[in-house]
Design a protein that fits this description.
The chain is mainly beta. It has one domain. It is 4% helix and 30% strand. It contains 1 helix and 7 strands. A 4-stranded antiparallel sheet has the order 1-2-5-6, with no helix packed on it. Strands 3-4-7 form a 3-stranded antiparallel sheet, with no helix packed on it. Strand 5 and strand 6 form a beta hairpin. It starts with a strand and ends in a 12-residue tail after the last helix. The N terminus is likely disordered. Bound molecules: FE2/S2 (inorganic) cluster. The site of FE2/S2 (inorganic) cluster has 12 residues, from helix 1.
Length: 91
């Protein structure tokens, strides 16, 4: 699955569970005024397919574009008073 987030590095997010496709079981939360939260073991790779985070814990991805540790959230959104409340409808 390919995500394009905030006009910087394209982020590929592979969801896995012993090789089984579990896309429908993944939860991604778009927080109010903050990061994306991925709640499931995920492998995040760069555009060269190199793993940059292999996690069995929550992953916070920057949504404001100002993190010094992109693509991960480092809390900068609070310092810059990032404002974005997204309430998409189910599609
Ligand atoms: S959303 Fe947290 S640093 Fe960008």
């Amino acid at each position: 699955m390919v995500h394009s987030i905030n006009n910087y590095n394209r982020i590929l997010v592979d969801f896995y569970d012993n090789g089984r496709n579990i896309m429908s079981e993944i939860k991604v939360t778009v927080t109010d005024n903050g990061p994306y939260i991925l709640d499931f073991p995920v492998e995040i790779v760069n555009s060269d397919d190199e793993t940059i985070r292999d996690s069995s814990k929550r992953v916070f991805l920057c949504r404001c574009g100002e993190s010094n540790n992109k693509p991960f959230c480092d809390g900068t959104h609070k310092k810059i008073s990032f404002e974005s409340v997204v309430k998409p409808k189910n599609s």
